[in-house]
Amino acid sequence: MKFISSVFLLIFTTYTMANAQSFAYKTLLKGVYDSEFPVIYPENDSLIRKAVLLDTREKREYEVSHLENAKWVGYETFDLDLVKDIPKDQVVIVYCSIGARSQDIGKKLQASGYSQVYNLYGGIFHWVNEGNRVYNQNGQTTDIHPYSNTWGIWLNKGVKRY
Q1: Which residues pair with 140 in a beta bridge?
Q2: Strand partners of residue 144
Q3: What is the DSSP letter of 70?
Q4: 3-state class of 119 per DSSP?
Q5: Spelled out in words, what is the top-level CATH class assigned to the domain 34-160?
Q6: How far is 156 from 162, CA to CA, in rounded Å?
Q7: 78-135 tens-digit pLDDT
Q8: Is the Cα dihedral 13, 19, 23, 25 positive or negative?
């Protein structure tokens, strides 16, 4: 009986901690995201496959890994000239670590006439935590740039590479 109680406690604790972090992450995102700016979830792969993916993180983060076929546009150095070849009616998905920087860039895209801009919900962290693939110049990788030690707590899968 003691063994069964211990196993139950272990399972319960693990389940609670996993969901608590998920709840905490969702709460964080709710505080960061503008409710008026559209998000797209990783499981909506039919739309994601049709979209132009824009990585709004810094170059070093992108070089460690990014979504397949994503174009780096940066955040601090972002310029609309980087996207001038993308039609204004094209579906565009922006992302960063959690979605804060990408939302800012997405708003700039909308203000310049892009009509179908979405922020990837939870950013690359959520993407990886959900078991989706990331790539670098050599192909598929498990490496992820966690932005900083503080933000890296939200990254549960992959190998953290600074």
Answers
A1: 135
A2: 160
A3: P
A4: strand
A5: alpha beta
A6: 15
A7: 999 999 999 999 999 999 999 999 999 999 999 999 999 999 999 999 999 999 999 9
A8: positive
